[in-house]
Amino acid sequence: MSERMTSRQRVLTALAHKEPDRVPIDLGGTLASGINYRAYEELLAHLGISEGWTWDAERSQTVQVSESVRRRLQLDLVGVRPPAPTAVRRWHEGNLQCWQDNWGVTWACPPGGHYYAAHVPLAGERTLADLAAFPWPDPTDPMWVEGLPELVRAARALGDYALCLILPVGFVHQAQFLRGYEAWLTDLLLNRPFAEALMERVLEIQLEISRRVLAIAGDQIDVIAFGDDVAFQDGPMMSPRLYGQMILPRHRRMFEAFHAGTAAPLFYHSCGAVASLIPQLIDIGVDVLNPVQVSSAGMDTARLKREYGKRLSFWGAIDTHWALPFGSADDVRAEVRRRIDDLAEGGGYVLAAVHNVQHGVPPANVTAMFDEALRYGRRRG
Q1: 123: closest CA among 137, 104, 138?
Q2: Other CB atoms closer than 10 Å to residue 75's CB: what's the count?
Q3: Please, where are the H alpha helices in the chain?
Q4: pLDDT score of 209
Q5: CA gyration radius for the chain?
Q6: Neighbouring C-beta atoms of residue 95, cutoff 10 Å
Q7: Distance CA 28, CA 355 (A)
Q8: Is the confidence at residue 3, as pLDDT, over 60?
Q9: Omega prior to 291 cis, within 30 of 0
Q10: 276: which DSSP letter?
Q11: Under a CB-based contact definition with an 8 Å cutoff, are residues 236 and 271 in contact?
């Protein structure tokens, strides 16, 4: 039996493509491995833990995982989210809770639902002059990093966990939020100068914010997490030509800035069927792929490990399409064993759900996932 590692050692060993004492596990350590507040309330009751919760990301309806839950489930990561300003104002419209963020996007949430972009400030017919006149957020505003050193110290004081620095969403997402999803996709083909100028302006702001964040926390963290979806359920959002011309070069610039600001491995999140893009993602600096959406086309974990496992780590892969919400606890345990068998040999795997655990996932399935990972994920021999 190998010597027991600390959580930080375990995660760093796995991401260095070496086999740790057991598979690292995550809930709430990143922007896309958290848990919905109602699912969390049910999990607390299931575990017999009496405590409240606070938001981690209100827009995605996820909460901060407490230390008592972290210890019960033997989680290995703690997320650190820079305290960027978000809600410029809040109000109600009928039964909708609404708020406007510092990019000018209005988010609305119906009772028991999720926030959606109810008003996008660059909707409709737009020109380059509209971009020049737009009230862009100031990336030098000290609120983007205010209190960040204290947040890092507080996270480190929790114990020897691996710390994951959670950066804001990327220029693809943010441009979609500003323009609207359909209009953004249409712009790529019919209004390319505008689409490129919009993404470039967003990218410049995000790069400056990221540099300031990493100047403070870059040498204090163990993983840097970044998300920017580029795929649907059945394939990439756009043709390989468009992706290579418009998205990949900008992601390369962003990832180069990340690597210049920290030695921590880069965790990149994109939902969907990204298998065909993986060689390019590796080439531009991605170290870890999340969420490994196994219900999407081409996302077979055994094949992904076989083809890319020496150069890329995987984070996630526990099916949220069927196994977690609709399967039995035994189904979840079988799912965990399958993904560990496919992905964990030789290191390079952190076990988590495919994206945030949503309301409707039975709490017994959540505990079955982590308990089976602890049992089955131990190094053999």
Answers
A1: 104
A2: 23
A3: 7-15, 37-47, 67-73, 128-133, 148-157, 171-179, 181-190, 192-217, 240-242, 248-261, 278-283, 301-308, 323-326, 329-343, 363-376
A4: 96
A5: 20
A6: 10
A7: 10
A8: yes
A9: yes
A10: G
A11: no
Q: 56-95: per-residue pLDDT in tens?
A: 988 889 999 999 999 999 999 999 999 876 678 899 999 9
CB 199 within 8 A of CB 175: yes
Task: Spell out the domains of the chain, with CATH numbers in brackets.
Answer: 7-85+126-376 (3.20.20.210)
Residue 289 to residue 270: CA distance in whole angstroms: 8
Handedness of CA 54, 99, 250, 218 (dihedral sign): negative
Query: pLDDT value at position 1?
Result: 37
State the helix-helix crossing angle for 192-217 and 148-157, rounded to 10 degrees.
Answer: 60
pLDDT (mean) for 360-364: 98
Alpha helices by DSSP H, 218-247 = 240-242
How far apart CA 313 and CA 28 sit, in angstroms, is: 19
Q: 109 by DSSP, 3-state: which?
A: strand
Q: How far apart are CA 275 and CA 119, in angstroms?
A: 33
Q: Identify any residues that bridge with 348 across adjacent strands, giving them in sequence order.
A: none
Query: Does an H or E element contain 158, and which?
Result: none
- CA-to-CA distance for 378 and 358, rounded, in angstroms? 27
* Percent over 70 (pLDDT), the chain: 98
- Surface-to-core class of residue 1, CB atoms within 10 Å of its CB (0-12 exposed, 13-18 middle, 19+ buried): exposed
Handedness of CA 75, 81, 83, 85 (dihedral sign): negative
Residue 288: left (phi > 0), alpha (psi -120 to 50), or beta?
beta
Cα(307)–Cα(226) distance, integer angstroms? 23
Q: How buried is 312 (Cβ within 10 angstroms: 0-12 exposed, 13-18 middle, 19+ buried)?
A: buried
Quote the CA–CA distance of 374 and 166 in Å, as a whole number: 25
pLDDT, tens digit (0-9, with 9 covering 90-100), for 172-211 = 999 999 999 999 999 999 999 999 999 999 999 999 999 9
Instruction: Please state, in angstroms and rounded to a whole number, the distance separating the CA atoms of residues 60 and 37.
Output: 10
Q: Are 108 and 91 in contact (CB under 8 A)?
A: no
Length of the chain measured in residues: 381
Confidence of residue 2 (pLDDT cuts 50, 70, 90): low
